[in-house]
């Protein structure tokens, strides 16, 4: 059992590592060190500066609507209060009280509204469930959700501000307006890089140590001794050749987690989301205004099921003039040899900054996104996409997080990952429940987050497709720069 004096090593300084170390140190754990191969003290989690974890990003959706999953809905509501208090503390700080990379006019959360859309006129089932769960369990928050095309709701929204009704109709071009959905005006976006900079600052204030950068912060492998059933994780070996000993190793390495813990390859899988950018020129202030978070919500559009499934969306413009669009209707794998376990092949992230770099995305998602964006915003066609990114998810077999002791290591090795595309919003609160699992204090997440592996014969969220599956990146066409351009007119749907 760990104690407040245990030496705790955390591999990974993304959302899972940051939130865990914050909650541990604030509750009295004195010896917590986070290792990350990225120099977050120099690149400030800004993806343009060479970091490529999922948390190092310009923005992420903050939503509380979670279908029937009341546990996550409640966690998001709790997170929201802390997000707002962080936002307030930053505004109330003098520049010298803030870490490098943050200034008092930075906000971590914009309540620009989170807009959920789907094809057709009938409210998509998931959205109906989200509204109903909110109505039954958090009615105050349900009052801030408004169904598109529902006259009463639109009147209610108009009373709050006509601006919100404009936001409700800003994406009317999608599917020629034959869409359904709702907007949640209590939700919006987090500025992801700034949020991580602030969380890391709070960690340091609480006494967490960070070892950042390659080679000193990069883990080559776990130190496991002796072999066999008595084995324990004794520490880590970093790329500079040094051994670091600890009482407990927590692996929060996001989509690289199975690269560090080979046993986790049937528990989590790295899959790539397709992210595209349009940089709006300065002289187009009309568009800067149109896509400003005051005038434009974050939105997500769903269509179809199964092989035909589309899910993708767009974010308001950043301070630098960048529009971000994502697609996750199909996520892609990249199977490679495992770095330490011979004979094992696992999906491994490949980004602009990995050894074998990549600067494009699969055509599959790109062509589908282009069609929706072109329908919605024909005025963007003249720019085309100006940049791209593969952003790596850590999918679990059921989209619940994975936060538990790894079996077979006598409680010396702990896995803390499985964000499955929805972990960011919980940055301020996640660690509270990670700490519960570490201390074996059961809570509502214990059954959801326990160690588990893919089961033969089940779909396992794609985890059992393996290298032969249809979404393996090495087998599908990748986009050329020419493909980033938009056609003259939106194409008909495939
Ligand atoms: C495309 C995309 C869109 C998303 N959108 C949203 C959203 O809108 N809202 C939301 O709530 N969530 C969203 N998510 C999910 C969210 O981003 C993740 O759940 C969360 O950021 C995962 O954090 P993490 O700490 O597990 O992983 P990461 O952020 O990837 O952190 C892992 C860290 O481990 C480090 N590391 C890896 N290997 C080593 C090693 N060998 N040695 C040292 N360090 C190592 C990496 O450098 C990295 O910093 C999205 C995810 C993706 C991919
Ligand atoms: C952390 O643990 C190490 C190894 O046991 C020890 O040398 C160090 O003094 C400890 N640091 C603190 C702050 O307790
Ligand atoms: C953030 O806090 C400041 C100061 O209280 C406030 O003016 C601003 O509206 C807040 N932002 C959000 C999104 O609530």
Automatic annotation (TrEMBL):
InterPro entries: FAD-dep_OxRdtase, FAD/NAD-bd_sf, MTOX. Transmembrane segments: none annotated. Its cofactor is FAD. Residues 7-434 form the FAD dependent oxidoreductase domain. Residues 458-494 are annotated as: Disordered. Keywords: FAD, Flavoprotein, Oxidoreductase. GO terms for molecular function: flavin adenine dinucleotide binding; sarcosine oxidase activity. Residues 468-494 have a biased composition (Basic and acidic residues). Pfam families: DAO (PF01266). Coiled coil: none annotated. Belongs to the MSOX/MTOX family. This is FAD dependent oxidoreductase. It comes from Aspergillus sclerotialis.
């Amino acid at each position: 059992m760990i104690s407040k004096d245990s030496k705790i090593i955390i591999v990974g300084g993304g959302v899972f590592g940051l939130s865990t170390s914050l909650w541990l140190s604030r509750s009295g754990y004195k010896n917590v060190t986070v290792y990350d191969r990225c120099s977050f003290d120099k690149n400030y989690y800004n993806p343009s500066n060479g970091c490529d974890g999922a948390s190092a990003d310009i923005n992420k959706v903050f939503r509380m609507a979670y279908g029937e999953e009341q546990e996550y809905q409640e966690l998001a509501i709790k997170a929201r209060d802390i997000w707002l208090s962080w936002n307030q503390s930053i505004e109330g700080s003098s520049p010298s009280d803030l870490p490098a990379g943050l200034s008092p006019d930075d906000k971590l959360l914009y309540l620009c509204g989170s807009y959920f859309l789907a094809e057709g006129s009938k409210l998509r089932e998931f959205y109906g469930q989200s509204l109903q769960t909110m109505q039954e369990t958090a009615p105050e928050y349900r009052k801030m959700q408004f169904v598109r095309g529902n006259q009463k709701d639109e009147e209610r929204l108009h009373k709050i501000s006509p601006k919100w009704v404009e936001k409700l109709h800003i994406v009317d071009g999608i599917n020629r307006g034959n869409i359904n959905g709702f907007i949640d005006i209590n939700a919006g976006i987090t500025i992801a890089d700034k949020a991580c900079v602030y969380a890391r600052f709070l960690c340091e204030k609480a006494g967490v140590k960070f070892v950042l950068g390659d080679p000193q912060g990069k883990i080559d492998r776990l130190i496991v001794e002796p072999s066999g059933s008595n084995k324990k994780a004794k520490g880590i070996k970093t790329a500079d050749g040094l051994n670091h000993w600890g009482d407990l190793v927590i692996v929060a390495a996001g989509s690289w987690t199975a690269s560090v813990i080979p046993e986790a390859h049937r528990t989590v899988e790295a899959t790539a989301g397709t992210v595209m950018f349009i940089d709006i020129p300065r002289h187009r202030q009309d568009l800067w205004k149109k896509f400003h978070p005051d005038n434009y919500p974050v939105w997500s559009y769903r269509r179809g099921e199964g092989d035909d499934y589309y899910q993708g969306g767009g974010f308001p413009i950043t301070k630098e003039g960048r529009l971000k669009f994502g697609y996750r209707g199909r996520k892609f794998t990249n199977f490679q040899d495992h770095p330490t376990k011979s004979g094992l092949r696992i999906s491994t992230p490949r980004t602009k900054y990995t050894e074998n770099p990549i600067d494009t995305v699969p055509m599959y998602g790109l062509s589908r996104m282009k069609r929706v964006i072109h329908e919605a915003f024909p005025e963007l066609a003249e720019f085309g996409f100006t940049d791209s990114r593969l952003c790596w998810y850590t999918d679990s077999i059921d989209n619940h997080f994975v936060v538990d002791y790894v079996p077979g290591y006598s409680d010396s090795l702990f896995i803390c990952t499985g964000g499955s595309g929805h972990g960011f919003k919980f940055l301020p609160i996640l660690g509270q429940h990670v700490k519960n699992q570490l201390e074996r204090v059961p809570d509502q997440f214990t059954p959801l987050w326990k160690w588990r592996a893919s089961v033969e014969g089940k779909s396992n969220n794609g985890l059992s497709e393996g290298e032969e599956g249809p979404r393996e990146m090495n087998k599908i066409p990748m986009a050329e720069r020419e493909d980033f351009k938009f056609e003259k007119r939106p194409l008909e749907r495939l």
